[in-house]
Design brief:
423 residues, 13 helices, DNA (cytosine-5-)-methyltransferase
C-alpha cells in the first residue's frame, strides 16, 4: 500500500491516480474527506496523531506526508518556529521508540506544531520490517531543518535521502510555490526531479534538453495571454475551513473571461459597475452589475476596451500582484479573510481615450480558478462552502508537482499533458 498522512483533498492522490497508482489517505477534516470521496479516493477519516501504526506494518510500499502548514506558514502567527525545538525533540524521541508527545505538546505554543513530527512515529514502526520502500514529504520552507533531521535518521536506517527547497513553477505549476521537500528510497538514489520550466526559456543545447518558460496564469486558465506562472496558495482556518476569504454570494467572477483581457460588446449582457459609478458619477458605460453570484463575467458595451489583468493575492498594502502573463504569487485563504482578486489597469490606448469606460472594479477569484492554479482538474469535485473549498485548495499539494516527485518511485513515465489545466 501507499499511505498518505494528512491527505487533504487529494493533491498527492490525484497525482497517483494519473500515474496509475492509488493510496489510502488519512484525513480528519470532514469536507476534505467529502471531496476525496467524490473524487473516488480511499480515505480513513481520523486524527493522524491518534491512529495506530500496526495496521500498516508489513503492508506499506510508500509513505507520503504533508503535515498542516498553518503553524509554520508566513500566512499565520508562525508559532511553529517558536515550538521548533520541541518538534525536533519529538522527532528524536519517536525515532528512538520513545513517545513523549504528550509532555512536549503541553509546552507547545501551537498544538499543530508537533504534527510535523508525526511521520516519524509511522516510519519507526514500519522500519522494523524494512518498510517503507520510499518516502515523500512536503511542507513550507521553514520546516526544512526538521526534514534534515529526518534525513539523518533515515540514512542510519539504510535510505538514500535528499532534502531541499523546490519551486513548483519549475515543474509546470502556474504558481511560484516554494516548498521544503524530503525524498527517500531504499532501492534508488534519492534526488530531486529535473526541472522542466524556467523563469526564462532555455533552448536545447549540447548540455541537455531546454526548459520551457514558466506557465502563466493566462495559459493555465485558458485565457490565451502570454507565458509565465502564479502565487502560492496556503490556507489556514479551523475544522470547517476557517472564515470565508470573501462574503457568501459575492457577485463578480472572471471565470468566463476568455478574450485575453479584452471585454467585447455583446448586446443584452450586463456590465460591471465601476469605481466612477460608486463614486456617484454618471454610469454612462457602466450600469450596475446585477448578475447572480456564479454567473458569467460581464462585458463592456460602447467600444472594445482593453484591460491588463493581474491577480492580487490579498487586500493588504504589500500584497503580491502578478499580471496574467506570469504565474501567481502566494495566495492566502482562511483566517485572514483576505480577498484574492483580479484587478485591471487600462492599456495605453485605453488611457488615451477620454470616452472610454472606467477601470473595472476588482473581481474575486473563484474556487475553480484557484484549483486550476494548483493544477487540479477544472471539474474537480470540491465539497463544502466557498470558505471550506478555498481552505482545501490552499492546503493541497499541487498534483503536477506531486507527480514529478512520485513518478521515479513508481518507475513510471510522467506525461505532463495528463495534467491539462483549463477546461
Amino acid at each position: 500500500m501507499i499511505v498518505d498522512l494528512f491527505a487533504g483533498p487529494g493533491g498527492w492522490s490525484h497525482a497517483l491516480t494519473v500515474l496509475g497508482a492509488h493510496d489510502i489517505g488519512l484525513e480528519w477534516d470532514a469536507w476534505a474527506c467529502k471531496t476525496r470521496a467524490a473524487a473516488g479516493q480511499v480515505t480513513i477519516r481520523t486524527d493522524v496523531a491518534l491512529y495506530p501504526t500496526w495496521p500498516w506494518v508489513g503492508r506499506t510500499r510508500g509513505l507520503i506526508a504533508s503535515p498542516p502548514c498553518q503553524a509554520w506558514s508566513m500566512a499565520g502567527k508562525r508559532l511553529g518556529l517558536v515550538d521548533q525545538p520541541l518538534a525536533h525533540q519529538a522527532v528524536a524521541d519517536l525515532a528512538a521508540g520513545r513517545d513523549t508527545r504528550a509532555q512536549l505538546l503541553a509546552a507547545c505554543r501551537d498544538e499543530r506544531s508537533l504534527l510535523a513530527a508525526e511521520p516519524m512515529r509511522y516510519l519507526h514502526a514500519l522500519n522494523c520490517t524494512g518498510e517503507p520502500e520510499w518516502v515523500a514529504m512536503e511542507e513550507v520552507p521553514d520546516v526544512l531543518p526538521l526534514w534534515k533531521q529526518y534525513a539523518a535518521v533515515l540514512r542510519r536506517w539504510g535510505f538514500s535521502v535528499w532534502t531541499g527547497i523546490l519551486n513548483a513553477a519549475d515543474y509546470g505549476v502556474p504558481q511560484t510555490r516554494r516548498r521544503a521537500i524530503l525524498l527517500a528510497s531504499r532501492i534508488r538514489t534519492a534526488q530531486p526531479p529535473a526541472p522542466t520550466h524556467a523563469q526564462v526559456a532555455e533552448p536545447e543545447s549540447l548540455f541537455g534538453p531546454g526548459r520551457a518558460r514558466w506557465v502563466s496564469m493566462a495559459q493555465a486558465l485558458g485565457w490565451g495571454a502570454t507565458d509565465r506562472p502564479i502565487p502560492t496558495v496556503c490556507a489556514g482556518g479551523g475544522p470547517g475551513g476557517g472564515p470565508e476569504p470573501f462574503p457568501s454570494g459575492s457577485r463578480k467572477t472572471l471565470s468566463d473571461a476568455r478574450d485575453r483581457g479584452t471585454w467585447t460588446p455583446r448586446p443584452g449582457e450586463t456590465i460591471l459597475a465601476s469605481r466612477r459609478d460608486k463614486a456617484g458619477c454618471a454610469p454612462r458605460h457602466c450600469p450596475r452589475d446585477n448578475r447572480a453570484a456564479d454567473g458569467p463575467a460581464p462585458t463592456f458595451t460602447a467600444k472594445v476596451h482593453r484591460w491588463s489583468w493581474s491577480l492580487r493575492s490579498n487586500n493588504q498594502a504589500n500584497a503580491t500582484v502578478r499580471p496574467l502573463s506570469e504565474p501567481a504569487g502566494t495566495l492566502f485563504f482562511g483566517h485572514r479573510a483576505n480577498e484574492c482578486t483580479w484587478v485591471a489597469e487600462p492599456s495605453a490606448d485605453q488611457e488615451e481615450d477620454p470616452g472610454a469606460a472606467p477601470v473595472p472594479e476588482p473581481i474575486r477569484i473563484t474556487a475553480r480558478e484557484a484549483g486550476i492554479l494548483q493544477t487540479f482538474p477544472a471539474d474537480y469535485p470540491w465539497a463544502g462552502t466557498k470558505g471550506q473549498q478555498f481552505s482545501q485548495i490552499g492546503n493541497a499539494v499541487p498534483p503536477l508537482l506531486a507527480a514529478h516527485l512520485l513518478a521515479p518511485h513508481l518507475n513510471v513515465p510522467l506525461n505532463p499533458d495528463d495534467f491539462a489545466l483549463a477546461a
